[in-house]
Amino acid sequence: MSEESLSRRKRQLRMRKRLLIMWAIFIPVVVVVAIFVFKNKDEVMEDMGLTKDKIYEENAHPEINSLINGYFTAYAACDQLTLKNLVTDPSQYDDMTIVQKKAEVVTGYNNIKCYTVKGLADDAMVVYVVANISIANVVSTPLDMNPALYVVKKNNRYMVDNTALDKKTSDYIASLNSNQDIMDLMQMVKDDQQKCLSQDPTFKEFYDRLTKDSQKSNSGAAQATTAATVEKATEAATDQASEKQTEKETEEAAE
Fold first, then answer.
1. Sign of dihedral through CA atoms 161, 162, 167, 169?
2. What is the pLDDT of residue 230?
3. At what angle do helices 201-216 and 180-199 cross, to 10 degrees?
4. What would the pLDDT profile of 123-159 be if each residue is shown by its tens digit?
5. List of E strands, 22-142
6. Who's near 236: CB < 8 A, 6+ residues apart?
């Protein structure tokens, strides 16, 4: 092999060695960047202006925010007059038994946020309410998410539609509940509740007791939120009390 060929081969070997070193550095950097982007994809997309719009708006309608804040404040305070004024069917609050029993457990709602999705009508909204709840004898105030409320405009003001919704509307809300954005909200609430369960023995004791009572009453322990479980358990307990009272009155009448 000539000296010129040998020199050329040495140059090629040096070039290959440099390329190998560059790739050895470049590939790990690409991997690290890819992992970072994957873990922080939402922030990265937002910085790049590529954020996908959510299905909902957050606190975007002051009139609805005012309605929901007033509704939940009245619910916790067992304010019958205000509740009747904020719903489409005031007669549902002629009997305040369930509201009173629930208020003995959930004593307040704070930092209320309204996540709204357009309803089937132009003046209707589906509202997902997320708030920190105060619970009797519990130290922490976990996040909670109530079942979707349907809000409609009546007499030029928004009101909570507390009537039995038609199938089309119910199916629409069910379809929203399975949307990933709404499921992410639910997961956010569950994550906060799990954090409270791990850090607050008073909440864990309450939650375990609530779940046990819910299972006994067949009202379903696998609720998305604490408030939903409280409401179901309260309704079941109220129904059971009414049945016992009816049985007692029937026995007394027979005697």
1. positive
2. 55
3. 120
4. 999 999 999 999 999 999 999 999 999 999 998 999 9
5. 57-58, 106-118, 124-135
6. 214, 217, 218, 219
Calpha distance 128→130 (Å, rounded)? 7
pTM, 2 dp: 0.70
Measured CA to CA, the distance from residue 208 to residue 225 in angstroms comes to 13
Q: What is the residue type of 235?
A: E
Question: Are the C-beta atoms of residues 133 and 227 closer than 8 Å to each other?
Answer: yes
- pLDDT tens-place string over residues 58-107: 999 999 999 999 999 999 999 999 999 999 999 999 999 999 999 999 99
In this structure, are residues 74 and 109 in contact, taking their beta carbons and an 8 Å threshold?
no
In terms of Cβ atoms closer than 10 Å to its own Cβ (0-12, 13-18, 19+), residue 2 is: exposed
Nearest to 194 by CA among 204, 202, 186, 185: 204
CB 147 within 8 A of CB 232: no
Q: Single out the residue of 93, 95, 77 nearest to residue 85, CA to CA.
A: 93
Q: How far apart are CA 213 and CA 234, in angstroms?
A: 10
Distance CA(149)–CA(204), nearest Å, equals 28
Question: Long-range contacts: 170-176, Cβ < 8 Å, 24+?
Answer: 172/119, 172/120, 172/126, 173/126, 173/148, 176/55, 176/117, 176/126, 176/148
